[in-house]
Amino acid sequence: QASTLVGVLAIGTAAGAVVASMRMRLDQAPKVIPMAILLGLLLIVLNFITNVWVAIPFLVTLGLIGGFLLVPMNALLQHRGANLMGAGRSIAVQNFNEQACILGLGAFLTGMSTFTTITAFGLLVAGTMWLIYRWHQSNCVKYREELDHLLAIARSDKH
Length: 159
Known about the structure:
Layout: H1 2-23, H2 33-45, H3 52-85, H4 87-109, H5 114-142, H6 144-156
Helix pairs in contact: 1-3, 2-3, 2-5, 3-4
């Protein structure tokens, strides 16, 4: 059943990514950050699900949210990185940071029970995304002109 549940999550993720690719524009990407906070909090609910028939729609929902987040956030990251340092270097930096985070999370979560790990990870995701959201809101006020310039680039880029 475990592999089936992973497959269900993957189906939701793929569906969310397809919807995001059809609905989201690059200049709207930061608007999905609150969904990441929700995703982190919903992860904690996994601790309380004991029935596979409840788990399936819940995991599809988590996948949909995750897939919908992934496309615009990754597109924004790659677009901004390509404009700042070139596409190849940007992707290398992104991959390095992803691998460093995987190692760091592995070290941080080692030795915890499954339930504690899920709760800690959910709170870490929600808390980090809340901080990023607040930082973005602050930047929208402090650096309005620069943000307008970056949004103009994003709107005019046809790639």
